[in-house]
Amino acid sequence: MNCLVIGGTRFIGRMLVADLLKADHSVTVLHRRPRHDLGRRVKNIQADRNDGQTMKAALAGKKFDVVFDNVYDWERGTTAGHVEASVRALSGASLQRYVFMSSVAAYGDGLNHHEGDALAPDDAPELYTRNKAMSERALFRLHQRIGLPVVTLRPPFVYGPGNNLYREAFFWDRLRANRPIILPGDGRRLAQFIYVKDLVTACLKVMDEPAAIGHAFNIANARPLSQAEVVEAFAKVCRKAVKFVRIPREYILRAGGHPMGPKLYFGNYVDVPPITQVTAKAQRVLKFKPTDFATGLKETYKWYLRHNTFPKPDYSFEDQLLATAPVLVPAKV
Q1: Cβ–Cβ contacts within 10 Å for residue 325, how many?
Q2: Gap between the Cα atoms of 212 and 23, Å rounded
Q3: pLDDT, tens only, 62-74
C-alpha cells in the first residue's frame, strides 16, 4: 500500500516507518524539515501540519491508501481543526484508512475505561486532553458524514527503544548511580504501559482489518501498575536495589517540581492522576497480544545501554528535596 506517516521521524513514527518498509509498503513521511534520515526508500514531504493552507498545497495531487496521523505539537498544541484540515487535504477515493494516534488521556480521568465511554469535554482543563478528545470526535463525525475510514488508537504510557521522552532513562540513570528514588506521596498512583513495538503492530493490523473501520481501540498492557511497582520493575531489569524516599506530592509541586520538567522528580509525566483502560476489544478484534512488561523493559534496557543520548542528569532539584522535604513514614506499597 501507499502510506503516508504524518510525523514519522521520532520514536513511534520511526519504528512504524521501519515496519512498513519491512512489509514492502511504499512510505512517505510528512514533517517540518526539508529532509529526514530514514533512508532512500522513504519519500519526504515538508509541511507544517498545524498550517492548513501549507498542508493543502503540499499534498495537492497526492494520493495515499493509508494515512497514519502520528504527531502532536507539544509547543503549540494540535487541535481538532488541524486534524480535520489534514483529512480534507488527504481524503479521496483511494484512501482506505486514516489511523489517528490518540491517547488514553482523551478520557480525561477515571479507571477501567471501555472504548464506548464518553471522552473528555471540550472545556477539559488540560490542553492535550481536550485536543485529543475533540480530534477524535471530529474524526468520527467525518466518518458518519463522508465515510472517512478512520481508526483511532488510545495508548497510555508508551515505552521502548528510541523513546525521546526522559522516562525509562530517568529511572535507570538514578538506579545505576545508586541514588534514592523520590516517590510522590504513597506511590500508589496507577500507570498503564504499552511497548512501542506492540503499538506499531496494532497500527499495521488496522490497515487491513475491515472490522476496525469507524472504531477506537484501547492499546495497552492489561494490568496497570502502581508507581512503586513500576520503579521496582525498572530496578529488577538493571539488577539494582531500589531505595524509595516518600515525599508529599504537594511539597514537591510547591517547590517547583513538574511532572514534565524542567524540575523533574519522577519519570517524564508518570506522576499524573491515573487513567486506565480495558483492552478486551483490541484482543478480540485485532487479536492484540501485548508484550509482558518485564520482557519489553529488558529489550529497552539493552537499547538504553548502547544509545542513551540524554544529557548528563542534573540532580540538584532532587538533592534539594531530599535535604529539605518532610519524608513520609515508609509504608508497604
Answers
A1: 18
A2: 20
A3: 999 999 999 999 9
